[in-house]
Records
---
Amino acid sequence: MNTIKDFKNMTTGGMMRRNKFILFTVYCLLLTAFLWGCGGGSGSPGSNGTENTGVTVDATITPLYLGGNTYSVDTFQVVCDPGPPPVAEVFTDHNATLTMTARLINPNTTFQAGTLYVEKYTVEFRRSSDSIGAPPIQSDTRYKTIVIPAPAGTGVTTVEDTVILVDLIRKDQYTADVTSGQYNSGLAYLNNYTALYTFEGKNEYGEKFSFKAQTDFQIGNFDYCD
């Protein structure tokens, strides 16, 4: 009887050890899968989205109007001189200068980075904390090719181009909204915004990238008469 009892105990103990081993193996596999899925990778939060090309791009935006740098966006066209003949204030799109600086993430690499081609960009508008009651401004997406030559070694490539800030359509809409009585503004219908830019494209090897930039600006009734 003791022999049969000992055999049962040995069999039960062996099964328990096998079950524990199986559970441990399954746990390790699940843990590995979880850790693999948590990796950041290109485009993860805090990334500028160009790492997979081997190049990092820093960008700045400087508002530009009538040949000069200015953060004051005019949405009201006035008559500068009653004449005759009357002379109206120059009134057109408010643009911005985009300055891009590209450098290799690893300047010691033997890998030849490819030329970057921006294909489109989107401008989104965020009301400042002191202009929460201001009219919303519709986002603007533009398709434009901007070429950024690949840097080499410790060198830096700098490229400038002109992009839109607030076009005439959005200027006219702002004027209609701010004078409708539905929104708030300061003197001369002034409000403050931040323009958030996202640029997207591919390098010459077909690898996608993106980078961001932003600028603050004020919009309302400004005098641009000579």
---
Amino acid sequence: MHNFTIDYTDGLVINNNYNDVEFAKDKQSHYMVKTYFVHKKIKRSLQSHPDQLGITATIEETHSSSDKTLLTTNNCNLGCWLMPSFVKHFVPYHVDIYYNDKLYQSDTMDCKYKLVNFTLHPKDDRELYTWMNVIENFKKQMHCDISIKNNTVASTTEFDHIADVKYNTDDTNKQYYLGLHIGRFYQPNTQMPDINYHPDQLHNKNSLDIINDILYYYTTII
């Protein structure tokens, strides 16, 4: 059997690090990957529960996924890795891997109870505070744990109610499920914004706009 791993630590990468030659005999020498954007709805309902003191009411949330939107279709030789998209902002992906014209493996990104890392490159402390407030809200929405790569955050306890794990900005550790970079990124040797990080450009964008584009662009435009 072939072994595919789906890596969300820096964009989306499909690794095929084990190619079973015997299994592939008389079969295709490539695999196909379809990536989708998953529309998610959050349903909230008020539930009543009897207890010893009477009736208590709680708000319960259930998540349901609607139709998927196809983003890319790619073919790749067995034994080779594939980056289906160069996008670096948050995309709630669903991935289908096909081999020999049959669905071989599927995966839907799910941050719940997993570690999500943010590498932060703020221009000043005010921007850092703005971003950490948004990350705190993201943590509550996703029910995930948060790691932060930033020298200021790593050197203080002020954000410990948000950051479960802290690293210096240039730390190379990648022991997390999803990795995102927040900052202002440009194409090499130019002042043109890198649309892989800034899908809606940078013109007239403030600190809140920048992080919202990276976290919520794909939940508002499609």
---
Amino acid sequence: MRISCSDFKNYRMRYFTFLLLAIVLVLSSCSIEKTYQANVKRAKQSYEQINFVELMKKYMDKNTGNESIEGIYSVSGVVLKKSKGFFASEAKERTVFQKDHYAQVAVIRDNARNNREFIEIPIDKNYLASYSIRGEFTALSEGNVLVLKHFEPKGHELIYSFIYDRERDILEGIRVETSGSITYTYKLTFVKLYPKQTMAQK
């Protein structure tokens, strides 16, 4: 069976017409889906929104007293290395790491468990399904002295000793490690951003 030139042209025209219709249908379905998603998003945002940090602030406005360490903090860290050279008479200390305000955390009271009084929660990211507990604070009998058990990846735990300065709204922690003749000192400073003492006293 031989196909004439006109038949081939008609077949090719029908093929391109079908292909064009298919493309139009795909684009239309994508456009409908985008329109639907936009309408759903607008419907959801028709209500006033609140994020986790704002929720924490509302909780602290209601529940935090003047003496509580509960609050939102900015975290800074310093690592000091102390060592003595072969021919040196005294050990020298130098800063090997320093980073200011590298994280924000919320410290809130936890009444669910008896072996911890406060928990530390990173709040740098919003709109998460859940938030990790990265630390547990326990107060000692001295009142302003606390112990922080900080959780690292792979189940590793670091223990810091903290002092809470109520007047300056600052938590200062320290941890010391010794490896041979080298001593590393890790310092953490939590500066309270919210609520400040002046706000709590009003």
